[in-house]
Amino acid sequence: MLFRLFSYITVGEYMKIEKINLRQFLIFINSSYCKDINFFNEDSLIQGVKKVLLRIKDKIFLRGFYKVKVYVNAKLGLFLEVNQLEEFEYENSLDFRVIVYLDEKIYFKTEDYFLLPNKINIYYDKKYYYCDVDAISDIQSILEFGDFVYGKNLYQIMNSWSSL
């Protein structure tokens, strides 16, 4: 089942796709959708991500050569940054360069301090509170009240936040 909600596309409850522009997408793939992927093996991750992208290529009109950054969290799933590097002359041509970040941190961002568990490291920046998703035992219960931050965006925020 495919829904369009704002700039997001959700595929069931397993995948969320955000179209940034014609050449850029952010994709979240729930870990329950990736049961055949070994989250601790880079080759398995690369092949699994390519398989998923080939499955959804027509839904999001992927054409050309893409750089795909994969941020891995075994509890949550996969966070993909998909950037088109080149558009091919042939319409059905598609290729991916997949880069896997196994050890990168992923943080949960929320406006409500009281959603976060006690006795963990919580950081504050402007109006948001941040904590490592690995420190939250029941992340599924608070997903709808915040967003995930990872990669370059996380490092930019880390420079300005303060510890509580």
Provide a quick synopsis of the model:
It contains 2 helices and 12 strands; from the N terminus they run E-E-E-E-H-E-E-E-E-E-E-E-H-E. With 164 residues, it is an alpha+beta fold.
Key attributes of the depicted protein:
elongated; about 160 residues; single chain; seven-stranded mixed sheet; five-stranded antiparallel sheet; disordered N terminus; about 15% helix; alpha+beta
Walk me through the structure.
The chain is α+β, with helices and mostly antiparallel strands and 164 residues long. Helix content is 16%, strand content 43%. It contains 2 helices and 12 strands, in the order ββββαβββββββαβ. The strands form 2 sheets. It has a 7-stranded mixed β-sheet with strand order 1-2-3-4-6-5-7, with helices on one face. Strands 11-8-10-9-12 form a 5-stranded antiparallel β-sheet, covered by helices on one side. The protein starts with a strand and ends with a strand.
